[in-house]
Amino acid sequence: MKIAVTGKGGVGKTTFAAILARLYADEGKEVLAADVDPDANLGLALGFSDEVLESIVPISKMRKLVEERTGANSENRFYKLNPQVSDIPDTYAKTANGVKLLVLGTVETAGSGCVCPEHVMLKRIINNLILHRDDVVIMDMEAGLEHLGRGTTENMDQFIVVIEPGARSVQTYKNVKRLAHELGVEQVHVVANKVRDGRDEAFVREKIPIEDLLGVIHYNPEIMDADRQGCSPYEFSKTVVDEIRVMKDKIDQVS
């Protein structure tokens, strides 16, 4: 199963992705969590130690590795479009709490449609994760829609859009659904996070088709407590974990 978790910045997609990964790992599944967010903090949410996190260099920043695999360097403007990457997940992933973490990073570019060695490398790795691994792969995508425009997430089994109860988040969901369908991904679901009261929940249920809504995560200060202490929310809030567990069961049913 290959899942891309996306949404606007600050909506809680990393928290959701981390807890979902931990739930699958606790079932005994082989889980690989890929962090494709330039502000990479999925490892912290998964419960990795500071020591391990400080040792991680995103694949997109490993210039020597990119040069070695693509053949690109300052003197050579030509490079391979199909570099060998199948060994990279097992070579560079770190493991904690039953979850392998691969920090891919992203390519900072002006405008969409970038074709550069780093972009080619990341796209090949992502395609390898999607097409050639039997693990449960959960990708914490960068905020916004650029990754959809670059085509790095085609062939996913499903997209999960994390939203807040607000018009802008709902618009993001609509945009993701449209672009995902253009990539051939039919399964696009919504998780409504930080729902405070009945008005919030009613808004979500009015705006999101029932067949797309996985469920609701109610606002819970325990998540902020976990963040302040640098801990995984998985150990901090049984209530939120149980809410996401119900959604995971729905994900399993539609996959």
From TrEMBL:
Keywords: ATP-binding, Nucleotide-binding. GO terms for cellular component: cytoplasmic side of plasma membrane; cytosol. GO terms for molecular function: ATP binding; ATP hydrolysis activity. InterPro entries: CobQ/CobB/MinD/ParA_Nub-bd_dom (IPR002586), CooC (IPR014433), P-loop_NTPase (IPR027417), ParA/MinD_ATPase (IPR050625). It comes from the Bacteria. One of its GO terms (biological process) is negative regulation of cell division. The keyword Chloroplast does not apply. Residues 4-230 form the CobQ/CobB/MinD/ParA nucleotide binding domain. This is AAA family ATPase. It comes from Blautia liquoris.
